[in-house]
Specification:
Helices cover about 35% and strands about 20% of the residues. A nine-stranded mixed β-sheet has the order 6-7-5-8-9-10-11-12-13, sandwiched between helices. Strands 14-15-19-16-17-18 form a six-stranded mixed β-sheet. It folds into three domains: about 5-70, 3-Layer(aba) Sandwich (Udp-n-acetylmuramoylalanyl-d-glutamate--2,6- Diaminopimelate Ligase, Chain: A, domain 1), CATH 3.40.1390; about 90-295, Mur-like, catalytic domain (UDP-N-acetylmuramoyl-L-alanine:D-glutamate ligase); about 305-430, Mur ligase, C-terminal domain (Protein-Tyrosine Phosphatase, Chain A). α4 packs parallel to α10. By secondary structure, the chain is of the alpha/beta class.
């Protein structure tokens, strides 16, 4: 029996692909995935009782019903099913990866492309070996364009995701220092991100490339590419304002458009220009491109401007690495505001580079004269005596206790750190 064909027939009749047995409804297909703290196989029988058309398992002892289908590896099955579906649909796919800005770029591209096409994109940052196939499986015959965000923290992961999604178009936002613990070296990061370019090249697809990024331009040499940037590009733009929000001009057939975004910081210019280039390439009316980008508001703790009763916050606490930390701190230093406070959380997964990277953050605060700083996380501890302006907290909980006793008011505050710090918890105390 061809398990892929059997499951796909049920899927084609309206059944959803579900990996959480609690969400199973009549006619769904439950795929039993395993994780560090759970084993979906144990819930196969439950899924059948709840009305699942099939439960796909990879442990024979849990295949207790004729509706239980056994496969060698359920994750691999999910990925193969997604690729099978992607080939059936023939939907053009835009793949997006990069060290910083990939989720914002994905959201902006989705906003722009949705002005003309029925577009499906990765939800949130669900961009891994499970998220990518589920994104593909959320597309249907009405989908005209798909956007798949791809994340990686180990060598070869982008190739794996490209093998599933088979993208026709691609964007690498940038290549910086992140997840070095998993990658082992910066060279491995470059090679892994470049797997997107290689996959698209093999399919004779098209790349969207930042014309100002020498590394990306070099990697894209001899490939079909659409460039974006400040000059001599397919899509030309210019930063007009960065404080408090990014405003840029975009050169189009309808003249220079002034795009007033809700994005904080000049570092978002490249993300907005990537989406602008995608829109122009797909012949979307420039005025609708402008409308889409202007109406987009960041969420999920990505450079959000938050006003509390007592303070104004820039909440950028979803992710952090040396390159994103540098641009966030530098941008905040340029912004005007009284009683500026920086709350910085430690960066994760930097391996041998961790000490140097954390010391550089403190040096940057000093160089930018940001002399009111709360520093969170043990990775900073070796350097806390270097500068007297630093208030050190080993974790977020100790910072919260401090804020309860020492109220901060009338301040302009940057909150930046890796997701593991959970710095969003402090917002209610600011």
């Amino acid at each position: 029996m061809d398990t892929i064909a059997t499951v796909y027939e049920a899927f084609s009749k309206g059944g959803r692909i579900v990996t959480d047995s609690r969400e199973v409804k009549e006619g769904d297909i439950f795929i039993a995935l395993k994780g560090e703290n759970h084993n979906g196989n144990a819930f196969a029988a439950t899924a059948i009782r709840q009305g699942a058309a099939f439960a796909v398992t990879d442990e024979a002892e849990h295949a207790t019903d004729e509706k239980c289908l056994s496969v060698p590896d359920t994750l691999r099955f999910l990925q193969e099913l997604a690729r099978y579906h992607r080939r059936k649909l023939h939907v053009p796919i835009l793949g997006i990866t990069g060290t910083n800005g990939k989720t914002t770029t994905k959201e902006l591209c989705y906003a722009v492309l949705s002005k003309k096409f029925k577009t499906v994109a990765t939800q949130g940052n669900f961009n891994n070996h499970i998220g990518v196939p589920l994104t593909l499986l959320s597309m249907d015959t009405s989908t005209e364009l798909g956007i798949v965000e791809m994340g990686a923290n180990h060598p070869g992961e982008i190739k794996t995701l490209c093998d599933i999604a088979e993208p026709d178009y691609g964007i690498i936002t940038n290549i910086g220092y992140a997840h070095l613990e998993g990658f082992g070296s910066y060279e491995n990061i470059i090679r892994t991100k470049n797997e997107l370019y290689e996959a698209i090249g093999a399919r004779k697809g098209t790349l969207f490339v930042n014309g100002s990024d020498k590394l990306l331009m070099g990697l894209a040499d001899n490939q079909t590419k659409i460039t974006y940037g400040t000059s001599d590009c397919f899509a030309n733009g210019e930063i007009l304002q960065t404080i408090p929000y990014l405003v840029y001009s975009l050169k189009t057939r309808k003249g220079h458009l002034y795009v007033k975004t809700k994005l904080i910081g000049g570092y978002n210019f490249d993300n907005a220009m990537a989406a602008s280039a995608v829109g122009l390439y797909f012949d979307i009316d420039p005025l609708r491109i402008k409308e889409a980008i202007e109406n987009y508001s960041p969420s999920n703790m990505r450079s959000q401007l938050v006003k509390t009763k007592d303070n104004t916050l820039i909440l950028d606490a979803y992710n952090a690495n040396p390159s994103s930390m540098k641009v966030s701190v530098s941008n905040f230093a340029e912004m005007t505001g009284e009683h500026k406070l920086v709350i910085i959380g430690q960066m994760r997964e930097l391996g041998d580079m961790s000490d140097g990277a954390h010391e550089e953050v403190l040096d940057l605060l000093a160089a930018k004269q940001l002399h009111h700083a709360f520093i969170v996380g043990e990775n900073f501890e070796p350097f806390i005596n270097k500068y007297t302006f630093i208030n050190y907290f080993p974790n977020t909980e100790t910072l919260i206790e401090y804020l309860k006793k020492n109220k901060v008011t009338a301040s302009f505050i940057l909150i930046k750190g890796s997701r593991g710090n959970k710095l969003e918890k402090i917002v209610e105390y600011l």
